[in-house]
Write a structure and sequence with these properties.
The structure holds 2 protein chains of 2 kinds.
Chain A (H helix, E strand, L loop, with lengths): L4 E3 L2 E4 L5 E6 L6 E7 L6 E7 L2 E5 L7 E4 L6 E5 L8 E8 L11 E2 L3 E5 L1
Chain B lengths: L3 E3 L4 E4 L4 E7 L6 E7 L6 E7 L2 E5 L2 E6 L4 E6 L8 E8 L8 E2 L3 E6 L1
Parallel strand pairs in B: 2-11
Antiparallel strand pairs in B: 1-3, 3-8, 4-5, 4-9, 6-7, 7-8, 9-10, 9-11
Classes of the chains: A mainly beta, B mainly beta.
């Protein structure tokens, strides 16, 4: 069964450093997303991406964040200068036009745990 | 008022029991309703995806949506220890690949 994959599973970085989180969405999906979950809190939307541009972003997704689809398979989230409060699980998700009724079910990857020290 | 409210639990039931999980919401623009299951330190796994009011059944799982009351439920029949996880309700305003708004999750434990 196709699945979303993410690397690395755990990333430790120092405050102020740049990190790139990588995702390989399901191969025939066209819509890509990043969410984050701070420990003990709810999953929060960061950004959606379609046709090589951002479709929607939340207030969390400020100038420190960027997304890119550098090739036909990868989707990346870059944090330019990490802060302590960026420590969280980051989930990539992908979707396509649904098989029934036009729904766009979003399928999530296993996540990257980012620890900023 | 929070957009999506979900009782965090924990909820502990014996194996074989029927489990009822619920969420309420305030945004009447929500049209698509989902339930995800999340094991500790793993990604959310889609269980059920429903549109509008009514019931949808898949095996031991039944999702129920009542848009007039802004209330959704997930029922698990014949619960198993492997069902122990956090269950997240989630909602979208439209089908054009929009953002999902999640509830805080209910932690469920099934006692053997």
């Amino acid at each position: 069964e196709p699945e979303v994959t993410q690397t690395p599973s755990h990333q430790v970085t120092q405050m102020g450093q740049e990190v790139i989180l990588r995702c390989v969405p399901i191969s025939n999906h066209l819509y890509f997303y990043w969410y984050r979950q701070i420990l003990g809190q709810k999953v929060e939307f960061l950004v959606s991406f379609y046709n090589n541009e951002i479709s929607e972003k939340s207030e969390i997704f400020d100038d420190q964040f960027s997304v890119e689809r550098p090739d036909g398979s990868n989707f990346t989230l870059k944090i330019r200068s990490t802060k302590l409060e960026d420590s969280a699980m980051y989930f990539c998700a992908s979707s396509n036009f649904g098989l029934a009724g036009g729904q766009y079910e979003q399928y999530f990857g296993p996540g990257t745990r980012l620890t900023v020290t | 008022q929070k957009e999506v409210e979900q009782d965090p639990g924990p909820l502990s039931v014996p194996e074989g029991a029927i489990v009822s999980l619920n969420c309420t919401y305030s945004n009447s623009a929500f049209q698509y309703f989902m339930w995800y299951r999340q094991y500790s330190r793993k990604g959310p796994e889609l269980l059920m995806y429903t549109y509008s009011s009514g019931n949808k059944e898949d095996g031991r799982f039944t999702a129920q949506v009542d848009k007039s009351s802004k209330y959704i439920s997930l029922f698990i029949r014949d619960s198993q220890p492997s069902d122990s996880a956090t269950y997240l309700c989630a909602m979208e305003e439209d089908s054009s690949a929009s953002k999902i708004i999640f509830g805080s999750g209910t932690r469920l434990s099934i006692r053997p």
